[in-house]
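Hypothesis: this fold can be encoded by more than one sequence.
Test: take the C-alpha cells below, design a sequence, compare later.
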C-alpha cells in the first residue's frame, strides 16, 4: 500500500494508478509536484530523506519509466513534475501486478465457485471487473478483494433463493456465509446491488426490513373485531386496549368476530396510536412500522383474505417518496382494490413543507402500476413538498367513491393538529 512505502515510491504508485484508470489513452500522464497532488514530497523534510526520495525517482528515470522535470536556476534542486513514459514498465519497477492481470486471476477464482451464475449475478461480476480493471473499487470492494465479492454474491443468491425465510439475521448469516455478522457488515453494498437490479427505492435499513433480514421479527400492533390463534389459544384482539401487540410469526390463524367496517394500515407509530385511541368504530387497524417484513406482509394478506370483498382496504402514510414506496408494497400484497387515506394532492399543497434535507430517495418501479401513487409522486417532485402524516389528525376512512378507484378525493376538510 502507498502509505507503507517510501515517499518516492508513493509518488510513483500514484502516477501508476492514474495510468491504470485509462491505460489505452494516448494522452501522457504526469504528476505535478504540488502540495495537493504530491503531499509526500513536501512531507519529506530532512535532507537525507529528500535525497533518498530523489534517488528513487532517478532510478525510475534510468529504467525508462518516467521523465523528471526539475526547476531552473536557483530551483534546479527542486522537482517540478514527473512525466510517465512507460506504464507497464513502471509497474514492473514497483513490483506491482497490472490491474488487468489481477482481474484475470479474480475472474478464474470466481468462475470456479460460480460456474454458471444467474444473469443478474454475472452482471454484478462484470461491473466489478470493469472497475477493478481500472484499479478502482466497485460496490465498496477494493480491487482484487475476491473474498468480499464472493461473500456478497453468496448472500445475494441465498436471499434470492429465500434461504433466510424463518431465520433471524445472524442465524441466516452464520449458516449461509459462515460468519454471523457478515450480512450486517455488507448491508450498504448488498442494498446497492439489490436496488440496482430490482429498483426497490429503499435505503439499506428499509430493504433489510422488507426482506426480513432482521435479528428477530418486531411485534405487530393490531386493533379490530378479530381474534388470532397462536398454538391452541385464541386471543380476542377486540378486547385489548388500545390494541394488541404480538410477534407476527406467532399468529397461525385469524378470524373475524364480526364484519369490520374497513381495514386500514398505518405507516407511523404516532398516527397509529392516535387513530386507535381517538377513532371509535369497527375497523381493523394495523401498524406497518414503515416497510413490512415478510411476516407482517403475511398478516396483511390474511386480513385481506378473511374479509369480504365489500370491506374496503385503506393505507395511510407519509406523502413523500418513501411513503409512496411503502404504499406500493402494500398494494402489491393484497387482492382488494386499496385506497389511500389522508394522502391527497390537496392536503400536500395545503399543509406540505419543504424537507430540511434534500430528497434523496428515488421512486421505485413498483409505483408505476398505480395511477394514484404516480400522480402523488409527480406532485412531490414538481413542488418539492412532503407531508408527514403526523401533521394530520386521524379520521375514520370513508368508502371508496367508485368501484376500482384507488385515489378518491376525500378528507380534505381536515386540519393539522
Amino acid at each position: 500500500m502507498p502509505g507503507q512505502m517510501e515517499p518516492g515510491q508513493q509518488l510513483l504508485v500514484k502516477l501508476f494508478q492514474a495510468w491504470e484508470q485509462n491505460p489505452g489513452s494516448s494522452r501522457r500522464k504526469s504528476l505535478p509536484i504540488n502540495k495537493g497532488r504530491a503531499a509526500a514530497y513536501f512531507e519529506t523534510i530532512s535532507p537525507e530523506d529528500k535525497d533518498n526520495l530523489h534517488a528513487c525517482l532517478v532510478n525510475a528515470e534510468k529504467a525508462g519509466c518516467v521523465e523528471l522535470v526539475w526547476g531552473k536556476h536557483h530551483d534546479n534542486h527542486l522537482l517540478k513534475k514527473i512525466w510517465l513514459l512507460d506504464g507497464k514498465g513502471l509497474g514492473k519497477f514497483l513490483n506491482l501486478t497490472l490491474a488487468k492481470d489481477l482481474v484475470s486471476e479474480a475472474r478464474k477464482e470466481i468462475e470456479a465457485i460460480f460456474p454458471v451464475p444467474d444473469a443478474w449475478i454475472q452482471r454484478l461480476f462484470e461491473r466489478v471487473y470493469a472497475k477493478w480493471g481500472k484499479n478502482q473499487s466497485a460496490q465498496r470492494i477494493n480491487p482484487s478483494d475476491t473474498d468480499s465479492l464472493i461473500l456478497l454474491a453468496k448472500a445475494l443468491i441465498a436471499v434470492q433463493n429465500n434461504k433466510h425465510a424463518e431465520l433471524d439475521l445472524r442465524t441466516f448469516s452464520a449458516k449461509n456465509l459462515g460468519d454471523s455478522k457478515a450480512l450486517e457488515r455488507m448491508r450498504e453494498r448488498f442494498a446497492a446491488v439489490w436496488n440496482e437490479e430490482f429498483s426497490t427505492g429503499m435505503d439499506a435499513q428499509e430493504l433489510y426490513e422488507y426482506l426480513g433480514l432482521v435479528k428477530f421479527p418486531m411485534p405487530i400492533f393490531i386493533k379490530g373485531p378479530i381474534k388470532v390463534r397462536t398454538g391452541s389459544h385464541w386471543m380476542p384482539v377486540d378486547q385489548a386496549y388500545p390494541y394488541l401487540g404480538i410477534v407476527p410469526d406467532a399468529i397461525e390463524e385469524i378470524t373475524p368476530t364480526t364484519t369490520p367496517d374497513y381495514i386500514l394500515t398505518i405507516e407511523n407509530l404516532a398516527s397509529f396510536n392516535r387513530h386507535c385511541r381517538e377513532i371509535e368504530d369497527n375497523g381493523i387497524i394495523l401498524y406497518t412500522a414503515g416497510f413490512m417484513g415478510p411476516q407482517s406482509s403475511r398478516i396483511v394478506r390474511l386480513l385481506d383474505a378473511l374479509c369480504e370483498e365489500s370491506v374496503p382496504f385503506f393505507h395511510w402514510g407519509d406523502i413523500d417518496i418513501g411513503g409512496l414506496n411503502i404504499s406500493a408494497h402494500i398494494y402489491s400484497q393484497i387482492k382488494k382494490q386499496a385506497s389511500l387515506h389522508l394522502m391527497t394532492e390537496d392536503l400536500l399543497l395545503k399543509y406540505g413543507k419543504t424537507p430540511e434535507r434534500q430528497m434523496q430517495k428515488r421512486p421505485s418501479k413498483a409505483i408505476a402500476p398505480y395511477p394514484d401513487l404516480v400522480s402523488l409522486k409527480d406532485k412531490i417532485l414538481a413542488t418539492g413538498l412532503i407531508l408527514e402524516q403526523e401533521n394530520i389528525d386521524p379520521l375514520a376512512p370513508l368508502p371508496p367513491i367508485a368501484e376500482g378507484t384507488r385515489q378518491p378525493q376525500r378528507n380534505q376538510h381536515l386540519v393539522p393538529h
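Residues 47-62 form the longest helix (16 residues). The longest strand covers residues 79-84.
Hypothesis status: open.
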